[in-house]
């Protein structure tokens, strides 16, 4: 009975406090699924409340799906899949908010550049140039690997021609890239390792493949190498999924030493590294040098994935893979089975956009814009939420990952729903972990869709809720 003990606060009805405590016990596993809850009279005596209070507690738990009643037997705990419900509610927000109503919200959830900063006229020029130059060919299917001109220019401008263009595969964004690689190399019950926490989209793909997922804690400079190698010694690992710079969600980046060590371990223990280059171009700290896993991959162990959607236009779904020679055919076949070919017109347009230097200018411009916004958000957080949350300064990317201080009873799920009611959109931390019990004290806020005035307003609302 001790686990049911609670110190009551005067401002909140007792039945709500008791119900909240029991829900927490169920969520963290201290009350297991199907466990019988104490009889009404016994729990009321233990907590020093009347019977009606416990009756209301059990009714509330049943109404919220945390308990069920067996007639003549009692009330029993019911384990809920918190992630499914909140993920559904989170996704529905963006389906339900119309363009007209969107401006009423402070959007800390999305992580794409504002369309207003994109030089549309330059993009019009390359589209028209492509259509004038290639005519109907610009609208036909490309070869499986993608438009050769784009692959050649990716090799030239991003890899100094050190990567053969025949090892570059054009895909429809990073999410498709992860899916294609997963289908190519991950089978049912294969063992894979991910960072803890990690990108929720990748977690979903690996779960869909019914892989056995091991997590290794992220820390300064990358994952904990000691724990990583312990898993490698005990299990036959197929691949390790990682984000090398401004990791989603933590914002942490890998040190050169850890990257080099992980590649050595990949060769020693025979596994592949799936490197998701998330937002390496968006950096505000000049001391951060960009060196990808792939750039120092001497054993051809890295499958490099890059999306242009986050730093181009989100509606234009284009990215690419760099494929290791041994599994090149498997990945190509997986791409064919997925969608045959990525948009030919968009590939050719992006090719000219890069070739004409527009890409480089655009990246430079948005770095300057978002650096100011990043610094404003950091300073606003320090002044407005400094005693209620902890966070690191990533030095790049479009978001910050916040931990709610332990003395504050709210978790990220409560915060998400209360923020939503106040027209502030955040991303709950539970999305980024294999187990929904984890991450309940974390949430992510992005600043790519919010100007300084809205950032200030949103932080003020979060502050009032966390009080």
TrEMBL record:
The UniProt record lists the keyword Transferase: yes
PANTHER family membership: HTH-TYPE TRANSCRIPTIONAL REGULATORY PROTEIN GABR
MF terms (GO), sorted A to Z: DNA binding; DNA-binding transcription factor activity; L,L-diaminopimelate aminotransferase activity; pyridoxal phosphate binding
Record-annotated membrane-spanning stretches: none
Protein name (database record): LL-diaminopimelate aminotransferase
SUPFAM superfamilies documented for this protein: PLP-dependent transferases, Winged helix' DNA-binding domain
Enzyme nomenclature, EC number: 2.6.1.83
Keyword annotations of the record: Aminotransferase, DNA-binding, Pyridoxal phosphate, Transcription, Transcription regulation, Transferase
InterPro entries linked: Aminotransferase_I/II_large, HTH_trans_reg/aminotransferase, PyrdxlP-dep_Trfase, PyrdxlP-dep_Trfase_major, PyrdxlP-dep_Trfase_small, Tscrpt_reg_HTH_GntR, WH-like_DNA-bd_sf, WH_DNA-bd_sf
Lineage: Bacteria, Bacillati, Bacillota, Clostridia, Eubacteriales
Gene3D superfamilies tied to this protein: Aspartate Aminotransferase, domain 1, Type I PLP-dependent aspartate aminotransferase-like (Major domain), Winged helix-like DNA-binding domain superfamily/Winged helix DNA-binding domain
Domain of life: Bacteria
Recorded family membership: In the C-terminal section; belongs to the class-I pyridoxal-phosphate-dependent aminotransferase family.
């Amino acid at each position: 009975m001790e686990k049911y003990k609670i110190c009551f606060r005067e401002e909140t009805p007792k039945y709500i406090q008791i119900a909240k405590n029991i829900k927490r016990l169920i969520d963290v596993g201290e009350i297991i699924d199907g466990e019988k809850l104490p009889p009404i009279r016994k729990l009321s005596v233990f907590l020093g409340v009347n019977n009606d209070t416990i009756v209301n507690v059990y009714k509330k738990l049943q109404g919220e799906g945390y308990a069920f009643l067996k007639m003549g037997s009692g009330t029993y705990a019911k384990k809920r899949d918190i992630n499914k419900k909140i993920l559904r509610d989170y996704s529905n927000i963006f389906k339900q908010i119309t363009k007209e109503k969107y401006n009423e919200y402070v959007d800390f959830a999305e992580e794409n550049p504002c369309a207003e900063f994109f030089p549309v006229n330059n993009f019009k020029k390359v589209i028209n140039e492509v259509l004038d130059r290639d005519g109907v060919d610009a609208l036909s299917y490309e070869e499986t690997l993608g438009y050769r001109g784009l692959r050649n220019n990716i090799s030239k401008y991003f890899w100094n021609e050190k990567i053969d263009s025949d090892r570059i595969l054009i895909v429809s964004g990073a999410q498709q890239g992860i899916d294609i690689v997963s289908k190519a190399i991950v089978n049912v019950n294969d063992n894979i390792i991910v960072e803890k926490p990690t990108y929720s989209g990748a977690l979903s793909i690996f779960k869909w493949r019914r892989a056995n997922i091991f997590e290794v804690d992220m820390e300064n400079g990358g994952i904990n190498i000691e724990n990583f190698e312990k898993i490698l010694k005990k299990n036959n690992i197929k691949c390790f999924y990682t984000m090398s710079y401004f990791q989603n969600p933590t914002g942490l980046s890998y040190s050169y030493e850890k990257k080099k060590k992980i590649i050595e371990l990949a060769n020693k223990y025979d596994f592949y590294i799936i490197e998701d280059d998330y937002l390496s171009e968006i950096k505000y700290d000049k001391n951060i040098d960009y060196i990808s896993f792939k750039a120092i991959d001497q054993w051809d162990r890295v499958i490099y994935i890059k999306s242009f959607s986050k730093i181009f236009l989100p509606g234009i779904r284009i990215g690419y893979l760099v494929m290791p020679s041994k599994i090149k055919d498997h990945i190509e076949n997986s791409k064919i089975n997925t969608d045959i070919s990525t948009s030919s017109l968009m590939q050719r347009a992006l090719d000219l956009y890069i070739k004409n230097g527009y890409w480089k200018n655009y990246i430079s411009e948005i770095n300057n814009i978002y650096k100011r916004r990043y610094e404003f958000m950091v300073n606003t957080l320090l002044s407005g939420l400094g005693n209620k949350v902890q966070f690191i300064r990533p030095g790049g990317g479009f978001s910050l990952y916040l931990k709610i201080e332990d003395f504050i009873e709210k978790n990220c799920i409560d915060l998400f729903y209360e923020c939503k009611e106040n027209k502030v959109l955040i991303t709950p931390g539970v999305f980024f972990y294999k187990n929904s019990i984890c991450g309940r004290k974390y949430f992510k806020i992005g600043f790519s869709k919010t100007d300084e005035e809205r950032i200030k307003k949103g932080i003020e609302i979060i502050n009032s809720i966390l009080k």
